[in-house]
Amino acid sequence: MSKRVKKWLLGILGLVLGLLWLFPFYLILTNSMKTPKGIFSSVIGLPVNGTFSNYTQAWAALDFIRSLFNSLTITIVSVVLICLASSMAAYAIQRNHSKVSNVILMLFVAAMLIPFQSVMIPLTTIFGKAQMLNIPGLIFMYLGFGASLSIFLYQGAIAGIPEALDEAATLEGAGHGRIFFTIILPMLNPMTVTVAILNIVWIWNDYLLPSLVLPQSGYTIPLQTFFFFGQFTKQWNLALAGLMLGILPVIIFYFFAQRWIIKGVTDGSVK
Amino acid sequence: MLKTKSKAYWLFLAPALIGLLLVVIVPMLLGLFYSFTDWNGLFFTKSVGFSNYVAAFRDSGFLNAFWFTVKYAIVVIISVNVIGLGLAMLVTQRMKGANALRTIFFMPNLIGGLILGFIWQFIFVRVFAAIGTALHISALTGWLSNPQTGFWGLVILTIWQMSGYIMLIYIAYLEGIPQEILEAAEIDGTTPWQRFRYITFPMVAPAFTVSLFLTLSNSFKIYDQNLSLTNGGPYLSTQMLSMNIVRTAFTNNKLAYGEAKAIIFFLVVAAISLLQVYFSRKREAHLS
């Protein structure tokens, strides 16, 4: 087989697979703009008399602005806290060469073995007793669950920063707080991007934990989608418009941060 | 150098450490303790020994969920890894649009499992049915309404979601293979299969350990997709482990019993992860 024929075949294979992968997106996008009749008469074709009214109805039923706001608040605050707390802890562990630090690091790493399902029952009852089944409580839980992997990743990055740097700064009279926040933390930026991306993707999409913790006023996009879907299963046109609204923020984020997302996800799993 | 006795050391550690203790360690220990009692979420009156565990192993719903999850995990591991590696080999070829393809294949991975399940519910229930009716293929109608199509529905959804993720891992290793070696082998007259078998395959072997265990532990812990695609139905035939535990504890309010199941679940998932650590260590030792 000549090289050119091979190139052509590969190109066609890529095109076919790419379209196949995109097909589900095409289906929900086109059907979200059809009337119930339109979906019934042709589910695969383009909308004949496209309508946006599904979107206005779904927007209202999803309480979209509020659920978007809840999702953004929870994700942003949790991720900032995880990045700060984990980099600080990793710094303490990495720059202290004692058995205590080894044990603490082992504790964080060992905790990664514990699946969420194994702690969720006592966790929700404890937080329930403390009146913490709300957004602040959820954010604190994300800190506890997210710290392990983040510390593990940060610890590797800090090991690559020579300790002589800290020592020089100490000689200049800087305290640990200043050394960490003005010298170390900025140098960790590439790792912070990775840690942030991994946690954003997880927290933004999480359903089970918030479904056990949040009151209705705190519903995030996945939670609101679940309840919305229960109301509209028979009305696919509205349900699909709701799903489109739900994935839109993710698509926009992916569009702008694609390079970092792919790098972050790769680094997080290969390391 | 931060001294263990210094205030700074503990201040730096405190936020993450307190979080871990209150959110993971304490609930885990309490849960372990409760699983041996008749705890109902508020109080417990007595120790019940292993009876929650014995009951779990006699609970046909739990056992069915267990086997369903194992079957699902096996099929997913094989298909996601074969397809993920295939996609990775495709997009690392020098061709137009390779980067766009990467972007497209990975995209589903960013969408939450809950929304993914609803998207595919529409495809299986409405689109499959429409195509089946139009082309008179009865195998395409009635999807998700019996255990077999429910199973394959979950598998197809997972392939669409996870292949792109696993592809990224294989790409990381494939790009580490020096192009000259492959070209030299080609000039020497090797077949594509020989190049795959003797060059590519050994070079991406470490990626297999990572990817196999990632898919394994992911498919064991799955919940959202299960909830939104089949909701465990019909008649709980597609209920997976996670959903069984959630329902035992929060729908049927048997908290101690649910926790015992959750501890069994922990032992299985932890054993899988420890096996992974063991295998990657062994491989690293082998290489060095």
TrEMBL record, chain A:
Residues 68-257 form the ABC transmembrane type-1 domain. The chain crosses the membrane at residues 7-29, 72-93, 105-127, 139-158, 179-204, 236-257. InterPro entries: MetI-like (IPR000515), MetI-like_sf (IPR035906). It is a multi-pass membrane protein. Gene3D superfamilies: MetI-like. It holds the Pfam family BPD_transp_1. Keywords: Cell membrane, Membrane, Transmembrane, Transmembrane helix, Transport. It is found in: Cell membrane. The keyword Transport applies. One of its GO terms (cellular component) is plasma membrane. Coiled coil: none annotated. The keyword Nucleotidyltransferase does not apply. GO terms for biological process: transmembrane transport. PANTHER family: ABC TRANSPORTER PERMEASE PROTEIN MG189-RELATED-RELATED, LACTOSE TRANSPORT SYSTEM PERMEASE PROTEIN LACG. This is ABC transmembrane type-1 domain-containing protein. It comes from Schleiferilactobacillus harbinensis DSM 16991.
Automatic annotation (TrEMBL), chain B:
The keyword Cytoplasm does not apply. GO terms for cellular component: plasma membrane. Coiled coil: none annotated. Residues 66-276 form the ABC transmembrane type-1 domain. PROSITE patterns: ABC_TM1. The keyword Ion transport does not apply. It is a multi-pass membrane protein. Signal peptide: none annotated. The chain crosses the membrane at residues 12-36, 72-92, 104-131, 151-174, 195-216, 262-279. Gene3D superfamilies: MetI-like. It is found in: Cell membrane. InterPro entries: MetI-like, MetI-like_sf, UgpAE/MalFG_permease. Its main location: membrane. Keywords: Cell membrane, Membrane, Transmembrane, Transmembrane helix, Transport. One of its GO terms (biological process) is transmembrane transport. Belongs to the binding-protein-dependent transport system permease family. This is Multiple sugar-binding transport system permease. It comes from Schleiferilactobacillus harbinensis DSM 16991.
